[in-house]
Sequence to fold (554 residues):
Amino acid sequence: MQVEIMIAGFGGQGVLFAGQLLAYAAMNKDYHVTWYPSYGPEMRGGTANCTVIIADEEIGAPVVGYPQVIMVMNRPSLDKYEGIVKPGGFLIVNTSIIDRAVERKDIQVINVPANQIAEKIGDKRMTNMVMLGALLANLPLLSNEEIAAELRTHLPQRHQNLIGANIQALEEGARFQQEPA
Amino acid sequence: MTKQLLKGNVAIAEAAVRYGLQAYFGYPITPQTELLEYLSKRMPELGRVFVQAESELGAVNMVYGAACTGARVMSSSSSPGVSLMLEGLSYIAGTELPAVFVDVMRGGPGLGNIAPSQQDYNQIVHGGGHGDYYPIVLAPANIQEAIDYIGLAFTLAEKYRSLAILLIDGCLGQMMEPAELPEMQPVRTVYPAWAARGAAGREPIIHTSIYLNPLDQEKTNLRILSRWREVQAKEIRFRGYYLDDAKYAIIAFGTAGRVALSAVRAARNAGIKVGMFRPITLAPFPAQAIRELSERLEGILVVEMNSGQMLEDVLANTHNRAAVEFYGRPGGNIPLADDILTEIKRIAQGKSTLNGHPRDRWVDRMLAANPGA
Fold:
């Protein structure tokens, strides 16, 4: 078993942290895991992405040409990565700020108005958790509880008061499941 | 100890601390900077030495000075920064001092870019600085190996009074993977007889790379070489995958080796009997093992993130017994497993040859695919 997940968006959208939460939770379930970030000369407002690979044997390449799952948080990421989702794989789209529909018909698309949901819960910074909830509802590799445990361990002290809201964001996102074909 | 999710650069830094690193001198450069940044906080916490030098030249000469005291010393940099350190590396080697360096390679030549590459193979493995000297070069392919081999680098550097260099690329420096750090080991309190730590009550010890009498220099060169022969006899390390029944094999190190492993598994699933040979010590080079492979295999594919540097060392040991092909991605690109799989299939279809040079055939294929180059 090997699953490749790419998370892409603006710097500041929590793209790298969402990937790290997946990696921590996978490690603590005794999976093999790699987390590899884009580390170009980018900064807040620029684009960022990371690739997380979860497997039950030693992982070879930490980057792949055609990931099974791609989560796009903004329009430039959709434009750049729609074409490389593995056929039959998942594309999870933040429709709050992405103003076009997915064109491909050979992949499973999950549209999530993630910014609106996060703002309704109370903080736009939880957009990444809404998207992560939608991802895990469609790819039941790790549970929301397992991600929540990593939030408690790795969220900085000053943000620990937001744990409850983050868990709510995961749960709200999980409502967006792909309809069976 | 339990596994932690660790970034390569940080894992190497903390492992070096736990293996008793006493002094670090460096200068920031991407994709290596987290290593220096981590130590800038960690070393002073422990009362150990950290200096961000004014340049790589400053840093390497601080390492040189500190190494004269017998302390565990280290520096780290990335390709263009390592180029600046080469004079110092030659001096350290010529003075027969142990010192450890980490090179987190990026794309080039020149300023290039900050993306992962293996462009420094020749520069590091074959010396780089002037003169006959032989650094021990270790090439981990995952974070656990990076941790283990930084410890091994200190051990070997001190055992053979040699340079030991951990050669990784930006991918291994930047990625996170679960790994286990060693227990904290005590910093050394007993020093070798050659360590210059104050001459009160004894004759001064002089460390130098200057031998104005050429006969003295020649003796030094022969002493360095005889130590290197011992390294070659005792310290070769490599790892094989799926080689027992293999008709073909990939030879690749570091990140290229990881990607090749994915391609090998895919090829096995397609019924192709291919294995992989991953050198861990690039110097000393696993020449005998590659000679033996070339005697029983039908074809070998060398994969590197450069234009074919280790390729020449492989060719020197296969002697046209097995057909060798090359696939490389220079300039700061990680090859894709699918592209390596295509090369494996080409070889398995009998489309490799003993005629000509594998780099020429590869360049022709690359140029055909990149019309603008």
